[in-house]
Specification:
By secondary structure, the protein is of the alpha+beta class. The protein has 9 helices and 23 strands. The strands form 5 sheets. Strands 5-4-1-2-3-7-6 form a 7-stranded antiparallel sheet. It has a 6-stranded antiparallel beta barrel with strand order 8-9-10-13-12-11. Residues 1-30 have low confidence and may be disordered.
């Protein structure tokens, strides 16, 4: 391909070639604005072609990713309820770091990693973050066995996009399933007392043993860590969840260097504004998050945020009133608590400032808080 991009354009068909050649020939006689527009069209076409050229078949994805996916076996104190378990993981780097779920390795007395060729190694737990269910372990394995998988950008995922999962469901090593992205930005309850925000929902079959394994896009890049299912039986029923690669990229380097990750925290609890509450509070739209409780000595209390101080009864139901309503954080509209938690997860760290637009006493005002470390 030459610098103009003509050769690349010639590979996509007569229509694209016509667009590129037209743009190239009219650029000298057009205004600067038109030139920019035409160059933008060329860039979009070339980017589209590059994206399509990287799309792989499921067979190719499996062959590419399988050497980097491992089985993780754990032993725990022998009790009647739990002796050990099996999960999945994937190679993160050539230093032997393996990424898996926190719940797979947490409290284990022994962790063993098994590679594709059947060789096994005892693993050292490097770091665990129960708030995102991410864990890092390390093995001193033969370098030939370490095939790091590349992290993709989960922020580019779209609902309906095909994906695939590889792991060890029910201990069946190297199993692959496929599906689509069902939704983004889910809030996943966890045993830590804090929900995990910004989670990917997928219909790719995920079962016990898949935990910690990679969720991959159709270019073979990791876009998530398979972590949970929604099921009344404990087995797959069509709804699975994965921690996005954005979160992995943010958390894992700190887990490797420090063994833990400090999450930012506001120190409030409350309720999303639904239509009934909007009517009671006299709001035009059912948007925002009503603060009910402000934790003492928290960033919220330091900034002077106010929680609900009373309730009123309407048609037999009690509604909290009198608290601040968060309408936006750092200029991003808040529809519900999920928006606040996702923003904290994606871009904020301990010590950062965060601007809140709040509704107080029928007036809109702005409050700046300094984020602190989340308490256990």
């Amino acid at each position: 391909m030459d610098k103009s991009g003509i050769f690349v354009g010639a590979t996509v068909g007569s229509i694209s070639v016509f667009i590129i050649f037209t743009a190239l020939f009219i650029i000298p006689s057009q205004s600067d604005e038109t030139t920019i527009q035409m160059q933008s069209q060329i860039d979009e076409i070339n980017n589209l072609m590059l994206t399509e050229s990287k799309t792989l078949s499921l067979i190719d994805i499996f062959e590419k990713a399988e050497p980097g996916v491992v089985r993780v076996n754990t032993e725990r104190n022998q009790t009647e309820s739990e002796i050990g378990g099996v999960g999945s993981g994937f190679v993160f780097d050539k230093k032997g770091h393996i990424i898996t779920n926190a719940h797979v390795i947490e409290d284990s007395t022994k962790t063993v990693v098994t590679f594709l060729d059947g060789r096994s190694y005892n693993a050292q737990i490097i770091g665990v973050d129960k708030y995102t269910d991410i864990g890092v372990i390390k093995v001193n394995a033969d370098l030939k066995l370490l095939h790091p998988l590349s992290l993709g950008d989960s922020s580019n995922l779209q609902v309906g996009e095909p994906i695939t999962a590889i792991g060890n469901p029910f201990g069946l090593s190297g199993s692959m399933t496929s599906g689509i992205i069902s939704q983004m930005g889910r809030l996943l309850p966890s045993g830590s007392g804090y929900s995990i925000p910004d989670v990917i929902q997928t219909d790719a079959a995920i079962n016990p043993g898949n935990s910690g394994g990679p969720l991959l896009n159709m270019r073979g890049d990791i876009v998530g860590i398979n972590t949970a299912i929604q099921s009344s039986t404990g087995e797959f029923t069509g709804v699975g969840f994965a921690i996005p690669s954005q979160t992995v990229a943010k958390i894992v380097p700190t887990l490797i260097s420090e063994g833990e990750y400090k999450h930012p925290w506001i120190g409030i609890s409350g309720r999303d504004i639904n239509p009934d509450m909007a009517n009671v509070l006299g709001l035009k739209d059912a948007l925002g998050f009503l603060i009910i409780t402000v934790v003492e000595d928290s960033p919220a209390s330091d900034a002077g945020l106010i929680g609900s101080n009373k309730t009123i009864e309407v048609e037999g139901k009690e509604y909290p009133v009198g608290g601040d309503i968060i309408l936006a954080v750092d200029g991003i509209d808040v529809r519900k608590i999920d928006d606040i938690l996702i923003h904290l997860q994606r871009v904020k760290t301990v010590g950062d400032e965060m601007n809140l637009e709040i509704l107080r006493d029928d007036r809109t005002t702005n409050v700046t808080i300094i984020l602190q470390e989340r308490p256990n």
